[in-house]
Each structure stands twice: as C-alpha cells, then as structure tokens.
Amino acid sequence: MADGDALLIVDVQRDFTPGGALPAPDGDRVVPVLNEYAKRFAARHLPLFASRDWHPPETKHFEELGGPWPPHCVQNTEGAEFHPDLDLPAGTEVVSKGMDPGDHGYSAFEATLDDGRSLDRALGDLGVRRLFVGGIATDYCVRASVLDAAKHGYQPVLLLDAVTGIDVEQGDVARALDDMLRAGARTATLASVDGKLDG
Ligand code: VGL
Fold first, then answer.
1. pLDDT tens across 146-158, in order?
2. How far from 199 is each of 5, 34, 37, 161, 175, CA to CA, in Å?
3. Backbone phi and psi for residue 71, each to the nearest 5 degrees, phi listed first
4. pLDDT digits over 56-115, tens only?
5. Is 17 within 8 Å of 24 (Cβ atoms)?
6. Atom in ligand 1 nearest the alpha carbon of residue 11
7. Between β-strands 186-188 and 48-53, what pairing exists: parallel, antiparallel or unpaired?
8. pTM score, two decimals?
9. Residue 73 catalytic?
10. Which residues on adjacent β-strands are paired with residue 8?
11. 123 vs 151: CA distance, rounded Å
12. Is the CB of residue 54 below 6 angstroms from any atom belonging to ligand 1?
C-alpha cells in the first residue's frame, strides 16, 4: 500500500544535536535510522520531505524577545544546516518554518516549500494520505507536526525508533507520545515499516 505514503523528517539540524545550541541529548542517534527510512522510501519512489527550523535572528521564539528558547537555527548559519550525516535522497523536498518573527513555527504544517506551497498543499498534490514522521524533537516539532497531520486528515505514523526529545520537564516526551497516540497516530519501526509500505 505504498501508494499514498510519504516520509517527513523533522528538523534534523545541527543545533538540535549534541554540540548545537538547543540539543536533544540523543539527537545523533536518530540520524542513521532516518537515513535507513529515507532509503526505503526512496527505493519505492515515495515522496520525502525534510523540515527545517529557519528563524530570523530576532524572533519572539528566542529568550531575548521574551520567548522560551536560546537562539537556534538562525537562517544561513551553520547551526541551521542539516546534520552532516543526514543523507537526504535526491528529490527530497525541504520545507522551512519559523520565519515569522511573531510565531514559534513548531509544526511542519506551518512550513513552505521553495515554490511557496504549504506542506499540506504539496502532500495533497501528491495524493499522500499516510505520513510517516521521525526526527527532532519528540516533545515539540515532531509532536506538533503529528497532531497537525491528523487535523489535516492524514494518517500519521510515528517512527518510534527515529524520534528523540528534549524533555525540558521530565515527562514531556512521555506526554507527547501519549498526545500523539490519542490523536490517532499509529506507530512503526524499521522492523515493521516494510510490512506497512508493502502490505
Ligand atoms: C524545536 C524547540 C524549539 C523542535 C524547535 O524542532 O522540536 N524544539 N524549537
């Protein structure tokens, strides 16, 4: 049933991995796992999307203007680059979010492609119905993207072995998982995804 399936890799950027400005402690671990997912989707000619946080230097998202976070993923800086070990297959569409200085831009459904289309529009144009989601951070951008996918009428599938969180408050990741499952997300791992794509 690969028809109608797509992969969304959320915010696997230098700043969200160890050594970056706002690291998920385990951020490096998901990179090779996501590379393997990307290979499997590309081998089936399924659409791939990679979102990135793409903030202006001054935004309400950052502490300096009253926001919750240290500066991270500022446009055209090294910290905003995708993790150097992330292998995005040719044809992967990059979608950018967080450009509005008045908005957090957690969800990939707030992101746009280079051609200006929203992610929702691009998925619709491709006939996508089921969206497999992995990346960083489970408790922020992954959560927001999965909840929005469900709201927009897609079937989200959370890739349990390819997500990791920040856990500012202990329990945030567990609560995020709970929220996503209650919103109707299904789950998959590398061990089960082929069966879902081909079954
Ligand atoms: C994110 C915290 C702040 C994320 C972005 O990508 O999950 N988390 N900004």
1. 999 999 999 999 9
2. 12, 21, 17, 20, 31
3. -55, 135
4. 999 999 999 999 999 999 999 999 999 999 999 999 999 999 999 999 999 999 999 999
5. yes
6. 6
7. unpaired
8. 0.98
9. no
10. 49, 133
11. 14
12. no
Would you put residue 91 in left (φ > 0), alpha (ψ -120 to 50) or beta? left
Tokens of residue 48, six digits: 């791939």
From atom 6 of ligand 1, which residue's Cα is the shortest distance away? 141
Tokens of 122: 């691009």
- Cα 187–178–94 angle (5° rounding)? 55
Contacts of residue 117, Cβ cutoff 8 Å, sequence gap at least 6: 125
Tokens of 99: 């450009």
108 and 119 in contact (C-beta within 8 Å)? yes
- Tokens coding 13: 């950027």
Ligand 1 pocket member 16 (CB < 6 A) = yes
